[in-house]
Amino acid sequence: MPVQRIKLSDQVADQLRAMITARQYRPGEKLPVESELAAEFGVSRITVREAMHKLDVMGIVEVRQGAGTFVREITPAAYIKTLLPMLSMDNNSLKDIFEIRQIIECKSAELAALNATAEDLAQVKLPLSKMPEAARTGKLRQYNELDLQFHYAVAKCTHNQILITIQELLSDLVEGSISMGITPLNALEHSVIFHRKIYEAIAKHDSVSAAGLMNAHIEGGVNYAKNIMQDNYGKERS
C-alpha cells in the first residue's frame, strides 16, 4: 500500500496551530498576511489560504473580511469540537461510541443529580414529556431526536462546559448512526421507562441511582453494537 503524502496546506496548518498553542501568536493577535506566511514557510499563497481556512473551520483562527486573520481564544472545548470530522461512523466504531458514552454519560448523570437546578430539570423534562407519544406512534426519527435532546439536557445539568461539549460531540456521532438506519436499541416503550427513571433520580438528587440507571440504559447500546459486529463478521466468513 503506497504511503499517503501529507498536503502542504495541512503541514502549514499544523505548524501554525503548534505556534498558536505555544503562544507565539496570542489570542486576539493578528497573524501576518498571506505573502509573509508564504515566504516564511516556503509555500504559495494559495497553500497558506487553504491552511487558514482549515484553522478557521477548527475554530482556532477567525478570518475577518478586509481586516485579516486573528487568533481565537483557545479553549479545550474548541479542540474537542475538531474531533468530529476525524471520526468515521461505521459498525466497528459503533461499539466504541457506546462504550465511551457509557463512561462519559454515567458521570454526567451523577453530576447532574448533584448540580441540577429547577430550571435545568425543566429542560430535561421537556423532551421526556414528548417521548411516550413518539414511542406509541412508532415515530422513530422523532423519538431519536428527543432522545438526543434528553441526554444533552442532562449534560447541561452538570454545569461543566467541557462535559457539555463532549456530549455535543457524542450527540453528533449518535445522530450519524441514526442516519445509517440503525434500528432502536430496545423497544421504545422500554426506553421511555428508562429515561423517566433517570430523570426522577436526577430530580431527587440521587447521584448513585442516576449513574446506575444511565449505565444500565447505555449498556443495551454496547450489547447491540457487539451483536452487529458479530453478525457482520459471520457474513464475511460465510
Automatic annotation (TrEMBL):
It holds the Pfam family FCD. It comes from the Bacteria. SMART domains: FCD, HTH_GNTR. InterPro entries: GntR_C, TF_FadR/GntR_C, Tscrpt_reg_HTH_GntR, WH-like_DNA-bd_sf, WH_DNA-bd_sf. GO terms for molecular function: DNA binding; DNA-binding transcription factor activity. Keywords: DNA-binding, Transcription, Transcription regulation. Residues 6-74 form the HTH gntR-type domain. CDD domains: WHTH_GntR. SUPFAM superfamilies: GntR ligand-binding domain-like, Winged helix' DNA-binding domain. This is Transcriptional regulator, GntR family.
